[in-house]
Amino acid sequence: MTNNTVVSMENIHKKYVGTEIETHALQGVSLTIYQGEFVAITGPSGCGKSTLLTIMGLLDSASDGSYQLSGIDTTGLKVDQRTHVRNQHIGYVFQSFNLIDSMSVYDNVALPLEHRGEKPEVIKQEVLAALTKVGMQHRVNYKPNQISGGQQQRVAIARALVGNPDLILVDEPTGNLDTKNGDAVMKLLIELNKQGSTIVMVTHDSRYSGLADRQIQLLDGKIVGEKQLQSDKLQTNNLQSDKLQTKSEKEVA
Ligand SMILES: Nc1ncnc2c1ncn2[C@@H]1O[C@H](COP(=O)(O)OP(=O)(O)OP(=O)(O)O)[C@@H](O)[C@H]1O
Fold first, then answer.
1. 86: containing domain
2. For the ABC transporter domain, which residue ranges apply (predicted)?
3. ipTM value of the model?
4. Given a cut of 50, is residue 240 above it in pLDDT?
């Protein structure tokens, strides 16, 4: 493991044990993700993508295998220890936004920093900076149900990136959005990655997975393929939205 390794997983298994059936959702996944990468996880429905992201995000633990996050061995951590590490190191963006409706945009984004026990002045500065990054600084006092779906996802991204986590995990970020808003959210994620965020994204949408640096393909709980996507990025230039500019275009410009 090198200094710039963010995720190091070795032989991860996950079994969901029910009363009658047992599902072996991950069957020996090993992978390494480096600082600054934008990685897409793809594969058919039920192949284990969300399970993998959930374990990477320390929302659940593996049944077997080892997982180091930013050099911290997370194997065998108790739930509260896992929560602590997650809060320090991970931002999570969900398909359904998962904002708290009774709280303002500002308070939603402040939550991770409050859990970290940051000082109010630090919180204010960081929250406004995160909301400015996603273009939502003009809606600080709104409630989630007073803004559009695309705007809610922007706020959720601000909540994920506030406090500068080592890793941002994104599960089907455009699944509840129309093409225009989906493209805008993708463009924002690409921009954040350009600014240094390490991003791992689960998506069904090949237009979007093609924008990542690396694509990891899962099938039946196993990694069955992996590709670097420099050349594929060029093919995404003719996406129907002219607002979605790929990294390759930006690098050429
Ligand atoms: N909490 C759970 N309890 C039992 N089985 C589960 C649970 N979560 C997922 N599974 C099973 O584990 C397997 C992998 O599910 P997972 O949600 O990770 O797949 P996915 O690739 O994200 O699917 P999709 O693209 O449809 O969201 C599936 O067979 C699923 O039914």
1. 5-252
2. 7-245
3. 0.97
4. no
